[in-house]
Amino acid sequence: MTVTPRHDGRAADQLRDIRITRNWLDHAEGSALIEFGRTRVLVAASFTEGVPRWLKGQGTGWVTSEYEMLPRSTNTRSDRESRKGKVGGRTHEISRLIGRSLRAIIDTSALGENTIVVDCDVLQADGGTRTASITGAYVALADAVADARSRGLIAKNANPLTDSVAAISVGIVGGVPVLDLDYPEDSTAETDMNVVMTGSGGFVEVQGTAEGAPFDRDELNALLDLAAGGIKTLTALQQEALAGEARARRV
Amino acid sequence: MTVTPRHDGRAADQLRDIRITRNWLDHAEGSALIEFGRTRVLVAASFTEGVPRWLKGQGTGWVTSEYEMLPRSTNTRSDRESRKGKVGGRTHEISRLIGRSLRAIIDTSALGENTIVVDCDVLQADGGTRTASITGAYVALADAVADARSRGLIAKNANPLTDSVAAISVGIVGGVPVLDLDYPEDSTAETDMNVVMTGSGGFVEVQGTAEGAPFDRDELNALLDLAAGGIKTLTALQQEALAGEARARRV
Amino acid sequence: MTVTPRHDGRAADQLRDIRITRNWLDHAEGSALIEFGRTRVLVAASFTEGVPRWLKGQGTGWVTSEYEMLPRSTNTRSDRESRKGKVGGRTHEISRLIGRSLRAIIDTSALGENTIVVDCDVLQADGGTRTASITGAYVALADAVADARSRGLIAKNANPLTDSVAAISVGIVGGVPVLDLDYPEDSTAETDMNVVMTGSGGFVEVQGTAEGAPFDRDELNALLDLAAGGIKTLTALQQEALAGEARARRV
Amino acid sequence: MTVTPRHDGRAADQLRDIRITRNWLDHAEGSALIEFGRTRVLVAASFTEGVPRWLKGQGTGWVTSEYEMLPRSTNTRSDRESRKGKVGGRTHEISRLIGRSLRAIIDTSALGENTIVVDCDVLQADGGTRTASITGAYVALADAVADARSRGLIAKNANPLTDSVAAISVGIVGGVPVLDLDYPEDSTAETDMNVVMTGSGGFVEVQGTAEGAPFDRDELNALLDLAAGGIKTLTALQQEALAGEARARRV
Amino acid sequence: MTVTPRHDGRAADQLRDIRITRNWLDHAEGSALIEFGRTRVLVAASFTEGVPRWLKGQGTGWVTSEYEMLPRSTNTRSDRESRKGKVGGRTHEISRLIGRSLRAIIDTSALGENTIVVDCDVLQADGGTRTASITGAYVALADAVADARSRGLIAKNANPLTDSVAAISVGIVGGVPVLDLDYPEDSTAETDMNVVMTGSGGFVEVQGTAEGAPFDRDELNALLDLAAGGIKTLTALQQEALAGEARARRV
Amino acid sequence: MTVTPRHDGRAADQLRDIRITRNWLDHAEGSALIEFGRTRVLVAASFTEGVPRWLKGQGTGWVTSEYEMLPRSTNTRSDRESRKGKVGGRTHEISRLIGRSLRAIIDTSALGENTIVVDCDVLQADGGTRTASITGAYVALADAVADARSRGLIAKNANPLTDSVAAISVGIVGGVPVLDLDYPEDSTAETDMNVVMTGSGGFVEVQGTAEGAPFDRDELNALLDLAAGGIKTLTALQQEALAGEARARRV
Asked: What is the pTM (predicted TM-score) of this model?
């Protein structure tokens, strides 16, 4: 693959610097501060016994997510959704995407009647906040599951995690398909696609949008190839983060 | 393509009965009652001069959409979002999708500083409400543009419509890729994908979700092939609907 | 009665064309599309077992209603109440009126601990939306009761319907009392009155409002006479609609 | 008229003790504490220059009203609407009724581009809160108009008040038509009617509701006769209250 | 202490005229209309059996408060919080302060699993609404406790009231520490402090705020001395109000 | 002062480890991550030209603050205020306290018609979140002012900062007055006081609350002495943080 003149010097198929700081929080059952370049998302996975009313008595658990941006995570300050009294469409949409992505690798029967809520709060935004969220959320989720198991809240021989999951954005910028768009790229892309895949390489979500002209099948294929490569790297970084010993949580 | 034993007897690549009743409303600048089988969506396109504050003075127009389901459009009644005091995530998400799809075929400079709001209200839901909405919305939008032109609100030589747009769902049901899922199919699909394409065959949106197991590249390709066929038929039906003379609107 | 020069040529005591399309919906226990001229209201009656908490254990049922207008049912588009985050006073007021009107002909003991919610959604508005709603609601309610009986959810020998109910508007327009005002008449009426009556001729609601000068006792009497005549015709049309065989509902 | 055995010993056509304390507040342009027996409503009329945006530039003014009950005005405490985050249907309905009643005796051209908001806050409720509100509101409104005139905000030779307005409830209790129902009567009435009339005897609003069995024309007539008598007395009491000298307001 | 030239002629350590009208309401278990000069607050204490869910089964009761201002209690009308759909920060803050102040003199075990809600509605505001609220709230609370005891809802030998509580504002106005600021003083004070104390002289709350320049330790001490004197007088007035016989409540 | 057996081994007058990481964010005009032991607050100061409508044309600026806790900042997860659709009383109260504290050291005339919003988001809570917020907010505010000056948005010779400001909590725990309470101390304190002081030693806010028994004048004095010592240290740490060179902001 040729090196394109991306504004920050990256190759077309190159991720930004990715950092996963596991157990960034003291209270949460699982947590991570994940950074995709300047984008920083604080992820916290909260495990609670019991399930929402509509699931009671079925023997299965529930995993959901809430995403939100701090008001000054962006270049100009946005009003807080709490003050506006309503959650915006974009916030809802991304929260739902993260939740679906996590449920794709969860065996809710093995989880038992327990709930895990994964909060993704964007401390700083520079493009790719939803993909960073999903990628970090898996790490926090894995720790929350491990914590519950060690406390006997999930049976030792049950494994609610059926795979890992990660996400990356791809897009066509200046006519060239590129991986992991930062904000300047994202805001000028002709086509923007978010791809969520399992560690074993299956597709969980493909969301492609023509921002300018419609895209064709060849472009779609080029983007999917790029994404698959990026996901492979992210999966390795997740495994690496989880390989160390988790810091003891403060209950 | 072989005929699969779909519960309603359709072939895998067969659409439901599609009906577009143009100008179903007397007041709206453009309107249509669109039916995909039992799914019925009432679409109204409202043209108003002027644009939202954040667009003023730029010489470009705005097209947006709002989607909502009537409380008893579904098999069991849902609470009204107006009574709950908040719009749900799914409603927001679909509204945004319709808006983006329409903007993909609109030249906002040619539209001038005018706004078109396209309301899609689901009177009866049986799967595919968002794809029926987009497909019907194009018809209503085209009529609203024509009406504005005939009234001199858009320059006669300007054409804000750069193409047509339609949408269809595809999915893998019982291991078989099928076109235009109804509710029983949709609720049991392993993979569900909504595809929005222009009349000239470009992709505007591709949204695929693994509801059960992740899907692979071959399945993705089969689904895209099915979708392209369906869109072709829908495009022809849109053209047919628009070919007749529009009923005079009551101002 | 003399023929007054009403703008659409009707006699002072003449209703608009009334159409009741029973079972317009496939899912609802009872439904009707009712048209008073250009005014079109979609009514759906939803039967559910059980009652709101405050009624539990008393052996009586509950009937209530929700009314709403689609954003482009009117000549210029109105914002959705769901997006504004609150239900307006007029919407509340009409919803409450419809609910009271229906409860006037319901024996809640015979209904048992069951609830029927009647949704009235105005697809197109040209005056008289509340009276069309009440008139159509009775048809949908009667079908929902029949459906519940046929399914054994209400005892076969119990009859929750003690009478029928219908409604019509009357008003003084250009000094002349007229029946069933359309929007142009309604917006210029000096006095506007909505009358709800049972099939056997009793008053359920009388709501008269002086829009311009106060009205006197003679005018009030003339309006009530007109209304009684209109209600008689509407009652016959309701019976006719209910006389046919109901289309099988899709459960 | 015969004396009926009402639970508090009143004759069928007898009002409760009515007290109007004018200028109960120091700040408001007009105010009154009005009592219908135990029912106590604090009314404040606020005059401000200018009109809502939708009325600007038409040279006419605006009069509106807001009604609300204190949480412990009733026998058991109700939650505050401010805490519930939404205004209930009954509150909206009564606010709108008061506003319409006041506008019936206002010449908005004579008022000029000024707004008067009349707040009716129920300090204690024992039936008839809306009729007490309207009756007290007229007194506060008249004082606010006089205050504006004395300050030159309304032309000296313009008179925005075209008449006076008052309201009373009537109903059928235990088969007998009675005037000015208190709460025990109101909660057991078969028919309940609120009548708003001008000082010169014209009808502004007639709102009759069958709470139990439908009512007939004779009953309606008996109720309207009772109401007319009550309004006459209330009108005299309003004039008496306004005849004295107004206490100087503290600006 | 020297007599300062306060705008209303009061000495620096002099309260306004204080009036407590006990049992102003007929329904509430305890109530008072309290006046600090022109400031008038209607206080109602509502006793209900049971406690909020989070307290259930612990054998202890709950006392809380809600404060609100009528829209025209102030010199210019404010919008209702119920119409705005949200409760403002100041309203929340004062409601919480009143609740904490009352709980400081309540033995929740002696109260048993019962709840008392104290509503403080400002009918007219002229400075000191929160201190008048707390001072009046004690009187209403004491009556509600006595009422519950007389009805056997609290054990006769249990005394939930461990002390009395009252509140007063102090501040530095024109360089001079003064007691019980009215609105003109409050709006020009350099430092403003609200002090809540028990009848036996302990501090419950001290909330001092530098509105202009920061204040020093000597000023703080002078203000606390003034407050202690004012509280002593208020405590005597509370006892006097409670010494008479309570008017029989209307259940 | 004697060393008391605090649960974490601190002396009664000893602060927790305080860390101020200046310029933690890339976009904000001023920012800091401030840590009081385990308590971590992310502060962002956003400078914008212009003022709210009610201040326009007066030549003065505005400084305000919004405080919020992330859902899993605490030991058990709390619901988001954005999802609940309303901001809680405690959140409002602390936001207002921070805003007042900052305005105490701002010369709004020197600021010109500009607005600074200081967001304080609690990433992890272990007691003292409001005092950490105020202390960190000053650092972010100072940087935002410096940034605006360097860009010429504030006149070079104008200095909107008249002093510095910091805050600390003190309380009586187990009968002993202690400085800078962490969560375990805070939740068992008999008296809890938050003190806000300027760098030059004046009081800006004193908020003392008896959580258990009322406190007396001697206890109040002991707490104020402790606070003054703590503020001195915090002021030095603020100066130290601001002494270094600020990292270049990314516009």
From this structure: 0.91
Query: Residue written as tokens 């990256």?
Result: A10
B217 touches chain A (CB under 8 A): yes
Task: Please name the amino acid found at residue C35.
Answer: E
Query: Mean pLDDT over residues C74-96, rounded?
Result: 93
All structural domains of chain E with their residue ranges: 18-75+87-243
Whole-angstrom Cα Rg for chain C: 18
Across all residues in chain E, what is the average pLDDT? Answer: 94
CB-based burial, E77-88: b 16+ in 10 Å, e otherwise: bbebbbbebbbb
Do residues F46 and A77 make contact, with C-beta atoms less than 8 angstroms apart?
A: yes
CA gap C119, F182 in Å, rounded: 55
On chain C, the residues whose CB falls within 8 A of the CB of B66 are 71, 80, 83
Q: Which residues of F touch A76 (CB under 8 A)?
A: 46, 48
Mutate to test the interface with E, among F76, F79, F207 (most CBs of E within 10 A): F207
Nearest to E208 among F198, F203, F214 (CB): F203
Per-residue pLDDT, averaged over D104-133, amounts to: 97
F128/F106 Cα distance (integer angstroms): 24
Q: Which of A95, A206, A208 sits opposite B89 (nearest CB)?
A: A95
DSSP 8-state assignment for residue A215? B
Pick from D146, D142, D154, D137: nearest CA to D49: D154
Question: How is residue D69 written in tokens?
Answer: 């009950």
- D120: β partners: D43, D67
* % residues pLDDT > 90 (chain E): 89
**E223: closest CA among E182, E198, E188, E190?**
E190
Are the beta carbons of E18 and E35 closer than 8 angstroms?
yes
Strand, coil or helix: D127: coil
Q: Looking at the domain E18-75+87-243, which fold is it?
A: Ribosomal Protein S5; domain 2 (3.30.230)
More confident: A157 or A71: A71
Nearest to A173 by CA among A163, A158, A183: A183
Give residues with Cβ within 8 angstroms of C22, minimum separation 6.
C31, C32, C139, C143, C241, C242, C244, C246, C247
Assess whether pLDDT exceeds 80 at residue C250: no
Interval B197-244: pLDDT, tens: 999 999 999 999 998 889 999 999 999 999 999 999 999 999 999 998
Angstrom distance (rounded) from CA B163 to CA B63: 15
The stretches of chain A forming alpha helices (DSSP H) are 81-84, 89-103, 108-111, 129-150, 183-186, 217-243
Q: Do E214 and F207 touch (CB under 8 A)?
A: no
B contacts of C144 (beta carbons < 8 Å): none
Measured between alpha carbons, how far is E109 from E49 in angstroms, rounded to an integer?
14
Please report the pLDDT score of residue F212 as a whole number: 83
What does the alpha-carbon distance between residue B171 and residue B192 come to, in Å, rounded to a whole number?
A: 4
pLDDT at position E98 over 70: yes
Q: Is B129 annotated as a binding residue?
A: yes
Q: Tell me the shortest Cα–Cα distance from B112 to chain C, in angstroms.
A: 20
Write the CB contacts of F239 (distance below 8 Å, at least 6 apart in sequence): F164, F199
Can you tell me whether residue C102 is helix, strand or coil?
A: helix
d(CA F208, CA E196): 10
- DSSP SS3 for D139: helix
d(CA E234, CA E15): 9
pLDDT at residue E1 in the model: 45
* Any E CB within 8 A of F222 CB: no
Cβ of A203 under 8 Å from any chain B Cβ?
A: yes
Q: And the tokens for C57?
A: 């254990």
Helix (H, G, I), strand (E, B) or coil at E45: strand
CA atoms within 13 A on the CB side of E29: 26
* Average pLDDT across chain A, whole number: 94
Residue A199 to residue A232: CA distance in whole angstroms: 7
